[in-house]
Design goal:
Layout: H1 2-18, H2 24-61
């Protein structure tokens, strides 16, 4: 039990004194970057799925 308590204390100290937290502006810009990347990847997957569906339909109709 002593090890667990020591672990909790050390974790709290690390989170409050040693970790460098991003500023609000940096956090917002990172969020926008993730949202834009997600949309780009979703569109790319949609295009690939659409093309593959039509390709397979054309092959099966032969």
């Amino acid at each position: 039990m002593r090890k667990f308590i020591n672990y909790c204390k050390e974790s709290w100290i690390e989170l409050t004194q040693k970790v460098t937290w991003p500023t609000w502006e940096k956090l917002q810009s990172s969020t926008y970057l993730v949202m834009i990347a997600t949309v780009i990847i979703a569109v790319a997957l949609f295009v690939m799925d659409f093309a593959f569906e039509h390709l397979m339909t054309a092959i099966y109709k032969l």
